[in-house]
Amino acid sequence: MVAENYTAESWATYIGKINLNIIINNLRSEISVCTDAIYEAQLGLVIKEPISLTEYENLIGLVKESDYTAEYWNAYHTIVSNHSINEYTEKSILDEVCLIIKEAQTKLIKKPVDQGGNGGDGGSSIPAPTPVVPPVVPPIIPPIPQAPQIITIEVGGNQMAVPVRENIILRDNITGYISGYTNNTFRPNNSITRAETSQIISNISKESRLLKPELTDIEGKWYSQSVEKVISLGLMRGYDNKTFKPKSNLTRQEFAVTPVNMLDLSKMPSIGDKTFKDTDNFYGKESIKLLASLGILQGYSDGTFKPDAEISRIEVVVIINRLLGSRINAEEFSNKEFTDINDSWAKDEILRAIGR
Q1: Is residue 310 classed as helix, strand or coil in its secondary structure?
Q2: What is the four-CA torsion angle of 330, 296, 168, 211, rounded to 10 degrees?
Q3: What angle do CA 354, 261, 38 make, to 5 degrees?
Q4: Sequential DSSP letters for 83-124
Q5: Pairwise CA distance, residues 185 & 10, whole Å
Q6: Which is nearest to 203 in space by CA: 66, 328, 293?
Q7: Is the Cβ–Cβ distance between 80 and 101 less than 8 Å?
Q8: Which residue from 231, 232, 168 is spatially nearest to 205, judged by alpha carbons?
Q9: 109/117 Cα distance (integer angstroms)
């Protein structure tokens, strides 16, 4: 992980948490605690969003080398070279660089114009110096701030507005984010793989700029783009050995972390504090606590959550429907006939997720 891939604020927070979790005694328990803390800190990293370079490129295009003396152009070019930027430069730095370049352009002096002439002694006339005219720079128009995305969740009979992270753009009127099988079954109690989960999460979010993760086990597969998308958005992650393990089944803990990564936790309203007696030593305990407090997921009657148990297809559908209820098209119920859901406790939820 490198700093330039993430926003300065989230990277500083991440480094601060690493510094708080430096292993001193090399004890197994200490290593486990520190590893979980660092993994949670990584989940909070925010990938830099590409910015528009239109203003910068227009500014550079206002002047050209052939119009100016070598001395002044070289000085100007040095300033531009020392302030190079790219599409992942932070917006504040882009604005600062543009101001520096504008100031440098006002100091350029154009070449004298050779006016020629056949005056008195037949000699050429002395060219008049060209007055310095500052380049016309279009005014900087600040971008119109985008209203934060909100999902509405019903909590205890009341509607709660929950903010979504800025780099996550959820689809409106979501339908058909999961499908059944060709033999007219849905297999609601089957486990769900990491590849299938990446496709579901990809289906509910709009396209975004994809990073190319260095993973050795997704190239050329049907799920390669969905995996790249969820990793680019910070919703799922690969393993240290550069694999994604697409065919591995997802646990209840792993899936709880995924939808929570969509939310802007810094702007979350205050909610209850639902806990389970078997999650304290798991890295996903805060995500589990949050979704349980929102009424999105539930534990078992004995007060446990069973975070290491594999999550089923029907459980995934119910969690997503509850979380994104305000964005799922309530009228898009499937008319497909599945042979294995008639007695299911969540038949309507399945049909709603599949859509027409």
Answers
A1: strand
A2: -120
A3: 145
A4: T---TTS-HHHHHHHHHHHHHHHHT--BPPP------TTSPP
A5: 44
A6: 328
A7: yes
A8: 168
A9: 24
Buried b (16+ CB within 10 A) or exposed e, 14-49: beebeeebeeeeeeeeeeeebebeeebbebebbbbe
- Give tens-digit pLDDT for 125-151: 455 555 555 565 555 555 555 556 888
- Give the Cα separation of 188 and 344 in Å (integer): 8
The H helix count followed by the E strand count for the chain is: 11, 2
Task: Extract the tokens encoding 229.
Answer: 């998308």
**Which pLDDT band, with edges at 50, 70 and 90, does 197 fall under?**
very high
With tokens 């496709």, the residue in question is 199
**How far are the Cα atoms of 13, 151, 172 from residue 327, in angstroms, in the given order?**
32, 7, 5
Using DSSP, state whether 312 is helix, strand or coil: strand
**pTM score over 0.70:** no
Q: Taking a C-beta distance cutoff of 8 angstroms, is the pair 165, 262 a contact?
A: yes
> Tokens standing for 324?
């994104």
Residue 227, burial from CB neighbour count under 10 angstroms (0-12, 13-18, 19+) = buried
In this prediction, residue 58 carries a pLDDT of 82
Place of tokens 């528009």: 52
Distance of CA 237 to the CA centre of its chain: 12
Cα–Cα distance for residue pair 356/351, rounded to 1 Å: 8
Nearest Cα neighbor of 331 from 316, 346, 311, 348 is: 348
Q: Which residues pair with residue 191 across a beta bridge?
A: 312
Rounded to whole angstroms, the Cα distance separating 262 from 168 reads 7
- Judge whether 225 and 210 are in contact, CB under 8 Å: yes
Contact present, 171 and 179 (Cβ < 8 Å) = no
CA gap 66, 248 in Å, rounded: 61
The 3-state DSSP class for residue 154 equals strand
CB atoms within 10 A of CB 318: 20
